[in-house]
Design a protein that fits this description.
Elements: H1 3-9, H2 25-35, E1 47-53, H3 54-73, H4 80-92, E2 95-102, H5 111-131, E3 134-139, H6 144-147, E4 157-167
Antiparallel strand pairs: 1-2, 2-4, 3-4
Helix pairs in contact: 2-5, 3-4
Length: about 190
């Protein structure tokens, strides 16, 4: 595929469409290496990733669910249907990467710029996954702040979601895009 085809074939592959087949470590490392080349203002390189596979992923899924269940029992607002779906997706997918923002300690640039840099790193991974024949999905459940303590994040770090990666088990049609000319103004 050329670059245009990779971009136009990239899509969010829901976890149910990912096969339970293991993903080679070399492929994962390639995704992460390409993420590391994302643009970054003042070279803050604010992306961090925690990779979960196999037993560590299973333990994480159970720990997250137990924590959310406890919070719910204590009266905190936790959508348990979403918690169950997230746990099940985490158990199902071969690879789950926590996407973490590491803020520049001096806060030389606004947080949104560093979030944008992390997003570009994720896009690099996504395009690389597409090029490698893998599917990917960025999960951003509303209870991310509750999960942060389980990941032992450092000061200045913030969980932005989980990137699920796997071999595509079943193709499905692209949702497509509306015409680009409807989104452009020429002056």
């Amino acid at each position: 595929m050329n670059l245009n085809e990779i971009i136009r074939n990239r899509r969010a592959t829901p976890p149910k469409f990912l096969a339970k087949k293991e993903v080679d470590k070399e492929l994962i490392l390639n995704l992460l290496e390409n993420a590391n080349w994302a643009p970054t203002h003042k070279n803050t390189e604010p992306w961090r990733f925690i990779v979960f596979q196999g037993e560590s992923k299973q333990k994480l899924a159970q720990s997250i669910f137990a924590l959310l269940e406890e919070k719910h029992t204590q009266g905190e607002e936790v959508n348990m249907q979403k918690a169950i779906r997230f746990r099940d997706n985490l158990i199902h997918v071969p690879v789950a990467m926590a996407i973490v923002l590491q803020r520049d300690a001096a806060e030389r640039i606004p947080e949104w710029e560093e979030i944008a840099a992390v997003s570009m790193a994720v896009q690099n991974m996504w395009l690389s996954a597409t090029d490698s024949g893998l599917g990917a999905f960025w999960a951003t459940p509303p209870f991310l702040p509750h999960i942060q303590p389980l990941l032992n994040l450092k000061p200045g770090q913030k969980l932005l979601g989980f990137f699920f990666v796997g071999h595509v088990a079943m193709d499905y049609p692209s949702p497509g895009r509306g015409p680009v000319f409807e989104k452009i103004q020429w002056k």
